[in-house]
Each structure stands twice: as C-alpha cells, then as structure tokens.
Amino acid sequence: MSFDELFAPMKEPMILAAGISIIVGAIAVVAGLTYFKKWGWLYKNWLTTVDHKKIGVMYVFVALIMLFRGGIDALLMRAQTAIPENGLLNSEHYNEIFTTHGLIMILFMAMPFIIGLMNIVVPLQIGARDVAFPRLNALSFWLFAAGAGLLNVSFVIGGSPNAGWTAYFPLAGTEFNPGVGNNYYAWALQISGIGTLMTGINFITTIFKMRAPGMKLMKMPMFTWSALITNVIITFAFPVLTVALALMTLDRQFGTKFFAMQDGGMDMMWANLFWVWGHPEVYIVILPAFGIYSEIIATFARKNLYGYKSMVMSMVIISLLSFMVWAHHFYTMGHGVMVNGVFSTTTMLIAVPTGVKIFNWLLTMRHGKIQFTTPMLYALAFIPIFTIGGVTGVMLAMASADYQYHNTMFLVAHFHYVLIPGVVFGVLAGYHYWWPKIFGFRLNEKLGKSAFWFIILGFNIAFFPLFILGLDGYARRMYTYSADTGYGPLNMVSFLGALMMGVGFILLCYNIYYSFRHSPRETTGDPWDARSLEWATHSPVPEYNFAVVPKINQLDEYWFAKKEGRDITAGEYERIHMPNNSSAPMWMAGVMFLFAFFFVFSVWAGVIVFGLATLGFLAYRSFEKDDGHYIEVAEIVETERRLGGEQ
C-alpha cells in the first residue's frame, strides 16, 4: 500500500480535523503529565496495576471515551439524514461511520463498561481480596485497549471497516472491499475478544473458588449471579467469534474461500457463525445490567428482592435460549418454513423469563419506601422503555411479519429500545451507584438527574419516530433520500433528540469534574444504606478489600447485620498476601497491537518480529517466579484507622 493510500482517509475534512484533534489532545496529555511530574505516579499506580478495582476503573474510563466516539458517529448519522439529499457525508464516509458506531457501542463501550463494573464489584460482593488470576485480568484489559486502539487508528490510517458491524460476506470480502478496513475489523475484534474470553474464565474461577466462608451459590447477590451466568455465556460464545474472525482473515489475506460465493464457499456460513456469537452477545451485555437493576431497586425500595430464586432461574433459562435464536436475524435468507418456525418459537419463548424479571422488579417496589436517586431513576425508566423494545421484538420474532420489518428503520428502533435502556441505562445506573464506593464521594444528584432527563427524553425523541418511519418503508443504511418520500420531518425530530442525548452526556462528564471539586467526602463506606457485601468495607476501598474476610450465614447478610448491630468484618488481623504489580501485560498488549497492525497491511517482516516477541512474553511468564507480597498487620491497622476516620 502506497503512502497516499495509507493516509487517504485524511483527505476527508472531518477525518483530518479528527486526526489533528487527536494529535493535539495527545500532546496536551503528555505535556500535562510532564509538567505536573505524574509519569511515575501513572506508571506505578495505574499502568502496571493488577488491582481489580483500578482495572475496573480503567475499563470504565475507556468505555466513557468510546461512548463519546460512538456518540459522535451517531450524531453525524442523524445529522446526515436530518434533511433530504444532505451532502454532509458521502456514501463511503457514512458506511464507515455506521459500521464503527455499531462496533464501538457494542464491543468497545457496552462490553468494557459491564466488565469494568464486574471488576470493581464482584470480588467485593463475594468477600474476595482480588480475582483468581490478577495478572491475567490486567492482560485482559490491555488486550481490550489494544483492540479499541486498533479500530480507532483505522479511521485515519488506511480506512475504517465499511461493511456494517455484522460484516456480512460477500460485501466484507476483497471482491467488494479490497482495502484494509475489514482487516482492521478482524484484528481489532480478535485481540479484544481474546481478552474478553480470558475475563470469562477468570471470573468463573473467582466466583466458584473465592467466595467468603458460608456464601453458598444461592446466597450470592444478584449482580454476582448475573456476572457468573454472563461469563459462562462468554466462554461458550467467544470461541465461535475467534474462529469466524480467523476464517475471515484467511479469506481476505490468504485467498481462501470459506465465505466466497464460488469454489465451494458459503457466504451464509459467516452470517450463521456471526450470530451464533452475536445473539448471546446481546445477553452478555444485558444480563449484568439486569443484575445492576436488581441491586439498585432492592436498595432504594428498602426491600429484599422479590422472587430471588425465580430471578436466578430466569437468567439461567435466558442464557440457554440465547444460543437457540440466532437464525431470527436472517429469516429472509431462504431457510424454509420449518427452520423459520422453530427459531420464531424460541425467540418468543425467551421473552417469558425476561417478563418474569420485570414482574419481580415491580413486586419488589410494591409497598416499598422508594428513594428517587439518580441510579433509581435510570432503573425506573428502564422498565417501560425496555418493555416497548421487548414487545416490538416479539413482533419481529414472527417470521412472516419480519419479511416486512427486517430491512427498515423499525428494526433499528427496536434494537435501540432494547440495548439503550437494557444496557446503557444499566451501566449509567451502576456507575452512579458504585461511584462513592471507589472514590469516596457521591456524584452530584442535581447534575445527575439533569443528565438523566436529557438522556431519557432525548432517547425517546430520537428513536420513537424511527418506528413510524420504518412502518412507512424507510429502509436501513440509506445515507440520503429524496424530499418526495416525506421522511424529512420525522428525521429532523430524531436528530433533535440525538442532540438532547449529547447534552446529557456532556452533563454526565461535567458531573465528574464538579463532584470531584465540590462533593463532600463520605464518612461511611455505606452511603446508600445498601444490602450487599461491597458496602461493608471502606470507601474508597483499601488494596486488600477486607481487613478480615466476613462470614456469611444468609442472603443479604450485611443488611441483617446492620439491623442487628453486628459487625461482620470484626476479628483479629492477620498479614495479607497480595499480588505484585506487573508491567508485562501492558507491554505484551502493545506488542500484540503492533503484530496486528502489521498483519492488517500484510507487512510480514513486522508480523514475524512482533509475533516472536509475543511468544517471548509467554515464555518469560512461564518461567517467572513471582510470589507476591505481604501487607503486615501494622500497615493494616494504620490503613483501617485512616479510612475509618479514627484519630
């Protein structure tokens, strides 16, 4: 690839402006860290950390950046379609934006936000001092960050993926896409997906092996249950994506014909492999949000969660059915009546356990003393909005009706009515709820509620018109349309709603700055008077989480201990073994980033060098002896005194 081809995207004025802003921003960050002499602090405390809480914070930080990036893409798409025959974006740029918007929002915003909250909360909820494999946890984060970086680099070097976030063949093949954009797709998802798969294994091991004494499975908090089931889905679903992406790479870069339309290939095999992973992926991001809502509703309704066992069972059933519905994504591709009928039935069935959960939450709130905090507002808004998404999903589940709906904006409205309340509202609720646990102060409630109303109202104004436009025949993926169609007014309304959501996001970010400057610091580790075990330790949480590992006798042990005047963390201190920090995960992910970058452009010398370097890291780790370190009793006593506010 020539130099001109390499930087061809920079010929677009908006991409050039974005590239310049990235360079200027990077220079500003480097200058700030240098001026304030923070490089050592950053390296020691964050870049090399294996502390699950700090890794979780880094996941959430990157997720917020990706939310900004994906939100800009969404605003550009809505701006392009706000008026007929708009020339803001050309067709190629629009294709790149709607492709990267889907990828970023699902895989590089929702996934890291969910995994970040899991990292922060799950070990605390089960009374553990860290995850089972701390260094593997750090490597998982850095591989995700490498994948996110690779996808974002594509926008300015070589060109972004442009075949849609599903990358259907033959459109994603070299016949129609000879550039490197979809090579970026394959490698960005491959690297981050490997990190996610390792996270799944890590958290399953952590939850099964590191629970506090007495915490049986049916005494675990609901968020931990949702995390366990989610990570089981990850370990079964992500290997399918790994194989599919490897086959995509072989087709695009080595001339094989797995997904070709000739020489024995089958383009439909990609669609099947993608959705065998892709539909469980929907529940990978939604089930933890269900767990978050369960924690928040029980806390702010001042009641125990109604129907605990049915909630657990409904999530187990959802996880099983999630692998049995994938073909509903392509009813129109010629399966036949029998296959379409089977998948139509399983798709409708999965609505049943989801409906059970809705009634559980409603009955939890019944006769409760509800506190309308910012996290609770997101939980309350979720129920009716998600129900609209679920009902329209049942409409789409009917194979015969789907022939009419499937390629229209009705479908776009449906999956946004599922994913935004089902995931985005969930992670924002959890973000506000657990913020004081990590940082020792609450986000400002007034600003939080203002952001909430902008986001909620903006969302409905942006996406409800798309139901009407879809039923009126407005097709997906159209980058422009004529005035004669009559689609202009509702598209303009949708754009205004998207702008309102943008204002909500700005308020969300400003709230961090304002609260950091002005919010009073908490004097308790339990500012919400909550129920589960993470609130039994200090805020912010010390490195070792619990000075004394609590013993659990019942569900919501911490809640009952508070009411009975018991301290479940009381006991004699002993020295605590903790893992050492390590720079290896960050450097290994950097090497894999370069390996993938050179692979994208088929620069085989670079591939060989950085491939061997990756193997070198693995070999070094195999022979490394790292026994961790001990926190002595005197240090524990001092930390507990300081965090407990004792003089």
Q: CATH H level of the largest domain: which superfamily?
A: Cytochrome c oxidase-like, subunit I domain
Specify the CATH class of the largest domain: Mainly Alpha
Q: What's the CATH topology name of the largest domain?
A: Cytochrome C Oxidase, Chain A
Gross morphology: globular
Q: What's this model, at a glance?
A:
By secondary structure, the protein is mainly α.
Descriptive account of the structure:
The termini are far apart. The chain is built from 21 helices and 2 strands. It has 2 domains: 1-37; 38-582 and 626-644, Cytochrome c oxidase-like, subunit I domain (Cytochrome C Oxidase, Chain A, Up-down Bundle). It has a two-stranded antiparallel ribbon. With 647 residues, the chain is an all-alpha fold.
Question: What would the keywords be for this entry?
Answer:
single chain; 647 residues; Cytochrome C Oxidase, Chain A; two-stranded antiparallel sheet; 67% helix; globular
Give the arrangement of secondary structure elements:
Elements: H1 3-6, H2 13-35, H3 39-47, H4 52-80, H5 91-125, H6 134-153, H7 181-209, H8 222-254, H9 267-301, H10 308-321, H11 337-349, H12 351-365, H13 374-397, H14 399-405, H15 409-439, H16 445-471, H17 488-518, H18 557-564, E1 576-578, H19 584-600, H20 604-623, E2 629-631, H21 633-643
Antiparallel strand pairs: 1-2
